[in-house]
Specification:
binds flavin mononucleotide, globular, six-stranded parallel sheet, 25% strand, 29% helix
C-alpha cells in the first residue's frame, strides 16, 4: 500500500518573527506538522535533527547556519528514518534559511534514493518564500516528482489551516 511520510526540520527557541527576534515555544514547521497530524491521522512523522544541536540564540544560530551554507556542510543527523523505501510520498517541511533549506535537510535528502517518489514541500519563511529551495530540492532528489508546494509566513502558521488543508488536497495520497 502507498504510504506517506511527513519529514520536517524546525527550530524552536529564538527565531526571526515579524521583523524582529522572537522566541517560539514550538517551531513554525512543528506547528504545521501538528495540523498535518490531524489531517493525515496515522501518518508516520520523522523529525530531522542534527546530531549537534543548533544554538538556541538567534545571533549564534544565523552565524552557524551561514557557515554551514558557505561550506556546503552536510551535518550528521541525530537519527535516520527507518526504511524510507516504504514511502511513496514524502511531505517535507523546513524553514527558509539563508534562501534555501537548512543544511541538515540536505543531509537527510542526499542519504536516500527518492527517484519515482513524490516529494511535497512546505516551507516557512519571513518574506523570501521558497527562495532557491525548490531548485535545490530537485537537484538533491534526482528522479523524484516534486509536487506543488506550500510556502507560509512563519508568523501566520497558527491561522493557516485553510492553506494547509488546500495543500494536502492537491496530493494524491
Ligand atoms: C538561520 C536563519 C536564516 C533565515 N533566513 C531566512 C531567509 O533567508 N529568508 C526568510 O524569509 N526567512 C529567513 N529566516 C526566517 C525563518 O525562515 C522563519 O522564521 C521560519 O518560519 C522558521 O521556521 P521554524 O520555526 O520551523 O524553524 C531565517 C531564520 C534563521 C534562523
Amino acid at each position: 500500500m502507498a504510504k506517506t511520510l511527513i519529514a520536517y526540520f524546525s527550530h524552536a527557541g529564538e527565531n526571526w518573527v515579524n521583523g524582529g527576534i522572537g522566541t517560539l515555544k514550538r517551531g513554525n514547521n512543528e506547528v504545521v506538522v501538528d495540523k498535518l497530524r490531524v489531517l493525515l491521522p496515522g501518518t508516520d512523522v520523522f523529525r530531522i535533527e542534527p546530531a549537534k544541536r543548533y544554538p538556541e540564540r538567534y545571533q549564534a544560530l544565523i552565524d552557524v547556519a551561514k557557515d554551514e551554507l558557505r561550506a556546503k556542510a552536510r551535518p550528521a543527523l541525530a537519527a535516520d528514518v527507518a526504511n524510507p523505501e516504504q514511502y511513496s510520498t514524502i511531505v517535507l517541511g523546513y524553514p527558509n534559511w539563508w534562501g534555501t533549506m537548512p543544511m541538515c535537510v540536505f543531509t537527510f535528502l542526499e542519504a536516500h534514493q527518492w527517484a519515482g517518489k513524490t516529494i511535497a514541500p512546505f516551507c516557512t519563511h519571513e518574506g523570501s518564500g521558497f527562495g532557491s529551495s525548490l531548485t535545490d530540492l530537485k537537484r538533491a532528489c534526482p528522479g523524484a516528482n516534486i509536487a506543488q508546494g506550500l510556502s507560509l509566513y512563519g508568523s501566520n502558521v497558527a491561522s493557516a489551516d485553510k492553506q494547509i488543508e488546500g495543500f494536502i488536497k492537491t496530493l494524491t495520497l
